[in-house]
Amino acid sequence: MANSKVRSYLNELKKQGKFHQCFQQIVNAYRNCSDNDFGIRFSDDDFLNEYKKLCMLMLRYFKKSDENVLSSEMNILKSRLKEDLTIKHLQLMLIDAILNYGLKHHGIESSKVPQIVVLKRDKPMLSPVELIKLPIALQIKSILSKELQTPTANLSKEASYGRLVLYMTTGVQFDELITIINAPDALMYLGGQVFWYGKSEKEERRYVLCDAVVLLLLHHKNFIKPSEKIRVNKNRLSEFIITFLTEASGTNWQSLSLLKLRTLRKIDTIINLSPIDYQMYLRSSTCTELPQTAFLRLISNKALVADEIAKQPKKFNELNKLLSFDSDSFDYIEPKLIKAKLEYTYKNLRELNGQRASRAQCIKFVEQELKNDKNSVYFNILCGWLYYLLKEGGVTKKKLKVDTVIDYVKSISEPFLNVFTRTDLAVISASDWAIKLNDTSEYFNSAQRKKYLYYFSVFLIESEIVKDLCIDDLDIAPVQSKVDANLVSASHVSAILEYLSDSLNNSPVELYAYLLMCFCFYSGLRRNEAAKLYFGDIQVSPIKPNEGEYDWVLLSIRPNKIRGLKTPSARRELPLDALWPKEHLTKLRSFYDVQKNTENKPSNSLLFNCSVSVNKAYELLTQLLHYYTKDHTLRIHHLRHSFANWTWYRLNSNLVLTGRQYLSIFENDLFDQSFITHFNKRLKVKDNTRSKMFFLSHLLGHKVTVSTLNSYLHLKDIQHCAQMNQTYTVSKYFLSECIGRANFKEFMPGESLIERIEFYSKKQEQDYSIQYAGKVSDLITPSFKGFKQKFEADGQIRMLDYANALKSLELNSIHDTASSYSLPVEQVQKLHDNALSVSREYPRKGKKLPLIPNFPSLDNTKDDLKRVSSQKAFYYLCQKFDTLLSQKNVTLSEAFDALQILKYGAAGKNFALRCPDEQVIRNFLNLCIKFKLKSSHFKFRFHQVDLQNQNVIQARSYWEELVSSFGLSDSHIESASIEEGRFLGKHNGNGFLEVGLLITVKGSKGTYKKSRRHHSLMSFLHLLLIISYRAGEAP
């Protein structure tokens, strides 16, 4: 098909480049322009490059333009121009000149190109009309403040409700306060905070309340008789408020409505606090709050086990059944075959859609494809996503067109298959998935299609294929995500760093862990940003500071050859001397100086040059966080969330001062007043500025403050409560008004309101009691006592318990498994980690061992007589090992050495043990003899491999002597076929000896049936290897 007039003209411009008459006219005009016409001045080469880029863009987007340029395509082109104002202004002038030349010489018409860049202006938060209402807002505020000092006597019942409602609106929304007022018994207190907490199967709600509201709720609970209580609903709220304001002030407030009250509250918050505070505190959609367990752990500054029981109901049960595959059973299939199968599915799905088949019929077709093909895990994942998109819709739209669904899956399939097809999905962790998905993102040139990878990641999490995958670890700009909110206190991090500091000389892993913790917690770096820093990214003052002085260290976050950045705005510079406490910065400088002066590292080399040690360091940090806080939902990315919240406090020093009165988490060097002063001075932040959120967004590498507000700040309820207590101070007269004869004790930091009240009788104290949250939650003082980086078998725990725990991990979480079998959570976590390591390392080549051993039935309800032979053998070996271990006849270290024979397992032959190493076989046979195994339990086979003639006889004799030395002379060594040993590999001159374990079963007449191999024996060896993995080695 011939090119259109427009495209022919543009191709001519592209082909001739700087020699075209159009460009020559444009460049002459540009040279004659003064510097004031443009914010920047390009060199001739740069100007030519900009011209060529625009020609390419016009060719890309002017696809349907024929005789003239379509206005729709012109609008698309303008939307793709650079955001920088000066460059965009120049680009618009170039486009205008190119199109004017086309009009003059080729008759190509187009819509007028604006040469002025129009800036988007946000709608003002307060209009002039609203500002006129400020005196009314201040009047209501004055009435509320006066009421706390001199309460109005003899209020009517409706006015009492109105007073409570009016104070409540200072902290919560109208709908929320109704819930609280109707259930005042749900008050709880802990660590200086009083909060209302309600929990249901679907959700949990928590509202931190200021002192005035707490006293009024106690008054409402005890002074108003049950028969006189009014069931509060939204329709009567304005009536109650008007009644109270009229009785308290003596003026008529009949014109006040809930809508007007909301506006007045908005005006007061924006004027007296800031627009950002208004968005944080009074807009429910901003700032994701912490889950209850994390909240309690934080305000108490203690350790608390996270609650995993209250989860959202699964909406993907049908999909989970369709994808109920075991990835160990999948074989490698070439990507082109998977693509062909997917193309066949797309074709049939399009035909169905073309025949106007219903959505249910299309879903049924894809469901059948999933059921028919159970051999390729990769096809099942991609086809499962196809099914999910058809049935559940996308992230933002509930229903997607069939062609859109196919486009999503087709765009992802090729990059996904390129990266994942040679990966064993059974053994890779969630962090490995994140790394590989980041690798997959490199295949996308289009930013729009790169978002599809985000949609795919959401599917992986929701379908529980990779339920622990962290979206924040992906280098993909999120579209809409459910925020995983969690924080770590500065004091807990300091304790972990102190623990690591005592181990810094042991190995590079501890040193890496120490510095990576500082980079993530004190600098807010993403996991990948910290791991792949260049040596040249750090600038250090050449002069070391004197004792007590602040250092000067600057960190540049920028893309490099090894890793890019999540977004262009993630490029930033961080003054570490203002962010890191002096003690930790000293260790970084020491590490930097050693590498600079001793190793003489170039600037483009990695700061942490051993990727294995980096991964181990992150694993160690995760283990330490879990052990110390007892919260196993914490991840490395939550250190970045913690940085955002504690830096916001440091930017607002008034919040730190009020926070110290109620919470012990602010008793840390990070919140030292002199350090905060240096922080503000280094960043040039003024106390009265309202741009603090922009500072925080830049430190985090966010383009807009909305991302910071919505996804990273989680303490708005605590902060707003502190602000309310500052604004509305409760007097002893108001205390007496609400609960009768009582007084305030001397204020002690960390005490909540209910703890500061001195009651005059036990009955009064019981009547106004509030539930203590710590008793229910079982808070404990955190410590590292008993922490072990590696798994160590407990002599009190039987092998069968470990087997049951591993079996349970196939379906249940680590916490549920630990609870079910009364095992420590850390023990189960490390048992799982060992299983993961074993499945990655054994055998040395070929298909790896499964993550969970292929156990026989572990039903303990059957007695010994009813068990089948495989169960009896497995139970015997487990009980025998428990006995040997308790009597110290065998150690875990010896067992691990003996089980190195599993490195030579042959997957295709049910992991037959074919080993060329004499010492490995000796260790294994020695362990078997301790289990009282006899000749009838062994079957030996000799593989001559590449040996010939006399060498075969000598090698066979060599293995016979070795077997006889263990008293197994009755065991005959069979000769395996030469074909079987062709690909066994190198040996030491004696070929390979295959060791097979057999089960012997007595027949009905007392004679033994033919001995046979069984997977239960292999599963025992696999279990023992997991338990003894690297026993005796240094962590």
From TrEMBL:
<keyword id="KW-0233">DNA recombination</keyword>
<dbReference type="InterPro" id="IPR013762">
    <property type="entry name" value="Integrase-like_cat_sf"/>
</dbReference>
<dbReference type="GO" id="GO:0015074">
    <property type="term" value="P:DNA integration"/>
</dbReference>
<protein>
    <recommendedName>
        <fullName>Tyr recombinase domain-containing protein</fullName>
    </recommendedName>
</protein>
<dbReference type="GO" id="GO:0006310">
    <property type="term" value="P:DNA recombination"/>
</dbReference>
<dbReference type="GO" id="GO:0003677">
    <property type="term" value="F:DNA binding"/>
</dbReference>
<dbReference type="InterPro" id="IPR011010">
    <property type="entry name" value="DNA_brk_join_enz"/>
</dbReference>
